Every structure is written in structure tokens, then in C-alpha cells.
């Protein structure tokens, strides 16, 4: 997944993308937009995988994430910059990743062309992708935004543990209060050395502060988060969660 074009994340069993469940031309537009991205010259910029649940219930939060994603780049600029890779899943078997994007308008262009579809969670495929991508490029952190858990947590825990051993921190941001999702997201965050936090989809600033904290970490590590935390209770909460996971 280190080429510049966007592609599907195939299941090991060989199942492909459920393209028939996408709007006509939507996948082609997504791939075409990615192929037109100039090669990313990130230098020492941090790398963040930005993964979202794009199943049907997520459309309002997807739109919210689109409107906020530029702020991730802004807060990371003072810590060396940020390169973001968009990963999303939806439908029965569709999971896709973009190339690495260094400009918010380009990431927004990719996100704005995606519509949410019904389906179950595919968090295992996201974690496997982060693991595999990290074999080619250095990744400091990933963000996952979702509201549900419909997979075997033990299997996900093994993958999260692998990421934690590689030093890849997971920031799992949950909309709502589903207890199964809360327990699973907290476990995955702990195993990666990252953080789990809830946000209110009706209050944009609650997600914005969390994304800023994760972006700061991806760009500049703990020191960048500490600087941001002086004016952000949400970021202080993320740091507290990360510290608690190490004890």
C-alpha cells in the first residue's frame, strides 16, 4: 500500500471489494482523484492513518470529519508537518485506503466524494493495513472514528498488540455510548499505548479537540501533545489515558 494510487484492502481469503454496492462511478472518481495527487514530499513530516467507519449510521459524523480534517494539518504544522492517509470501510466487504496526502484540500476532495453505506465494522482490516503499511513507511499513530463493534475483540487485540510493539499509538474516538464499543475501543487503545475517548457528534468542537491531539502526537510526539494540552482539556484527557495505559 505504498504506491500513490488508492486501492482496496483485500481480505486474505481473496474476497474483493463489493463495488456493486457503490454509487455508479463513485469508486472510479475516488481512484482517479488519488492518482492525480502529486508525489508527497513529506520530509520529516509525521504520518497519521485517519480511519473512519463509513457504514450507514456514520453519514453525519463523516460530514463532520470532512469539515474538521483541515484542522489536523494546522495544529501539526508547528511540530514538523503531517501526512495523512485516509482509510474507510463500508458495505459488506469494501475497505479502501488513499495515498499519503500532505494538503487538507486534497484530503477533503477525497472524502467529499464518499457516501456512507450499510454494513458491519471491519476494524480488523484497518489494523492489518496499518501494520502492513508501517513496514514500508514510518507511522507514529492512527485515528479510528466509529460508534460500533461487531467483531471478535480477541482477534483485534492481537493486532493492536502488534502495533503497540511497533510504537504505533491508536487513538480511538467513539461517538455515542455503546458499551460493547466502549470496552473494545478502550482495550485496543490500551494495547497500542494510545487513548480512547468519546465525543458528541452534535458538538463539533468535541471531535475537533481530539483530532488535534492525535495530529499533534503524529507530528511531534508526546512533547507536541503536551504543548497543546495547556489549552485543551480534551488533549489533557488523551494524555492521561495514554499514561494510565502504561501503568
Provide keyphrases for this structure:
247 residues; alpha/beta; Rossmann fold; seven-stranded mixed sheet; 8 helices; 47% helix; globular; disordered N terminus
Radius of gyration: 16 Å
Spell the H/E element sequence: EHEHEEHHEHEHEHH
Number of domains: 1
Query: Distance between termini?
Result: 34 Å
CATH class (first level) name: Alpha Beta
Shape verdict: globular
Instruction: Give, in spatial order, the strands making up the sheet with the most strands.
Output: 1-4-3-2-5-6-7
Largest β sheet strand count, sense and barrel closure: 7 strands, mixed
Q: Would you tell me which CATH topology applies?
A: Rossmann fold
Instruction: Report the CATH superfamily.
Output: von Willebrand factor, type A domain
Report the sheet-strand fraction: 15-25%
What integer is the average pLDDT? 86
Indicate the low-confidence ranges by residue numbers.
1-5, 10-22, 34-42
What does this protein look like?
This protein is an alpha/beta fold. It has a single domain (26-31, 44-246), classed as 3-Layer(aba) Sandwich (Rossmann fold). The protein contains eight helices and seven strands; from the N terminus they run βαβαββααβαβαβαα. It has a seven-stranded mixed beta sheet, with helices on both faces. Helix 2 (59-76) packs parallel to helix 7. The protein is globular, with a radius of gyration of 16 Å.
